[in-house]
């Protein structure tokens, strides 16, 4: 197990380095010039060259990549003399428009995205697995038809449309929920949850649709398996049979949950934009709009790191949930 984890971690490091290089290369291939955006209008050629040299965007892609990797390990320095700016390791770069290092910006925005991801993940699991299990156990009934329709609608409708409907109906028309703003959990747990109910509803509605379909399909397959049919024939109660069947359902659910949670932690751009939440998704979007290479690379790499770690945890949980995987 230790060898497997070490091998996965080494692979993860190379994957992150590759993602950083591709992101930097794609950014430099774009038509926007970060130095021109920072210089403003009008921007004489001489001034633009000085700004570009100060931001270190006048160098090649390979040089930029080398400096980025160096910054992660030993920190990085921009400019010279009194205008010199130092970014301590691990340095994801320095955002000149925000006058702050990207690591601090990520740390500042992370609680918003963590709060959004945690509540949406729990809610979508409860709704998705609950409705999916009831749909499989009462196949063909009213609950099954409702769950199937709910899942199909959730998979078909775009996230921004659900968000706008929630804001319009519950925020403006009924005035029942706040439609913007964020309150820290340490400041007031009640207000923290109250301001996040709307985003949680939107994201859990979209994500729960997938869990309903996966849980229903997998549970029906498990209930028709030979060993569970034999248990029923020997007189086992439906509760005992369902309990054994649920273990087989957990494997695909855990794999799906790892991807969804890490994607949420990476930043749910649409939900944050609709509800005016300043999380990682909003930070990434602002970096793209402002041609801020440091923010784009930093948030992309951080999101990739979360996805890789989430998948590693899911892979380690699989053998604990299903002994057949451990034997394989």
Structure description:
- The two termini are 13 Å apart.
- This protein has 2 domains: 20-91, no CATH class; 106-327, Orthogonal Bundle (MetI-like fold).
- It is globular and about 85 Å long.
- Strand 1 and strand 2 (85-87) form a beta hairpin.
- Helices cover 75% and strands 3% of the residues.
- It has helices at 2-29, 34-39, 45-55, 61-74, 102-137, 142-156, 159-173, 189-223, 226-233, 238-266, 269-274, 280-289, 293-321, 323-327, and strands at 76-78, 85-87, 94-95, 100-101.
- Helix 1 (2-29) runs antiparallel to helix 13, helix 5 (102-137) runs antiparallel to helix 10 and helix 10 (238-266) packs antiparallel against helix 13.
- With 328 residues, it is mainly α.
- The strands form 2 sheets. A two-stranded antiparallel sheet has the order 1-2. It has a two-stranded antiparallel ribbon with strand order 3-4.
Secondary structure topology:
Layout: H1 2-29, H2 34-39, H3 45-55, H4 61-74, E1 76-78, E2 85-87, E3 94-95, E4 100-101, H5 102-137, H6 142-156, H7 159-173, H8 189-223, H9 226-233, H10 238-266, H11 269-274, H12 280-289, H13 293-321, H14 323-327
Antiparallel strand pairs: 1-2, 3-4
């Amino acid at each position: 197990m230790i060898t497997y984890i070490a091998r996965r971690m080494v692979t993860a490091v190379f994957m992150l380095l590759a993602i950083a290089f591709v992101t930097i290369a794609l950014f430099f291939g774009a038509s926007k010039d970060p130095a021109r955006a920072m210089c403003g209008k009008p921007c004489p050629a001489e001034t633009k060259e000085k700004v570009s040299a100060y931001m270190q965007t006048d160098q090649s892609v390979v040089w930029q990549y080398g400096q980025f990797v160096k910054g992660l390990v030993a920190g990085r320095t921009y400019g010279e003399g009194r205008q010199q700016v130092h970014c301590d390791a691990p340095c994801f770069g320095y955002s000149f428009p925000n006058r702050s290092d990207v690591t601090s910006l990520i740390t500042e925005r992370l609680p918003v995205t963590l709060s959004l991801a945690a509540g949406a993940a729990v809610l979508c699991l409860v709704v998705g697995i609950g409705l999916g299990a009831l749909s499989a156990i009462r196949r063909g009934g009213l609950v099954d038809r409702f769950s199937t329709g709910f899942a199909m609608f959730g998979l078909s409708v775009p996230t921004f449309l659900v968000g706008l409907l929630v804001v319009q109906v519950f925020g403006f028309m009924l005035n029942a929920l706040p439609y913007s703003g964020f309150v820290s959990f340490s400041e007031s747990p009640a207000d923290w949850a109250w301001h996040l109910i709307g985003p949680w509803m939107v994201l859990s509605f979209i994500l729960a649709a997938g869990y309903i379909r996966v849980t229903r399909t997998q549970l029906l397959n498990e209930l028709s398996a030979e060993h569970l049919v034999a248990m029923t024939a020997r007189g086992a109660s439906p509760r005992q049979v369902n309990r054994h069947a649920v273990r087989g359902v957990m494997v695909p659910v855990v794999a799906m949950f790892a991807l969804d949670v890490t994607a949420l932690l990476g930043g749910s751009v649409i939900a944050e934009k609709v509800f005016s939440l300043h999380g990682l998704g909003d930070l990434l979007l602002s970096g793209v709009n402002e041609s801020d290479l440091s923010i784009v690379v930093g948030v992309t790499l951080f999101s990739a790191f979360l996805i890789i770690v989430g998948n590693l945890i899911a892979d380690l949980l699989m053998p604990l949930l299903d002994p057949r995987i451990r034997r394989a």
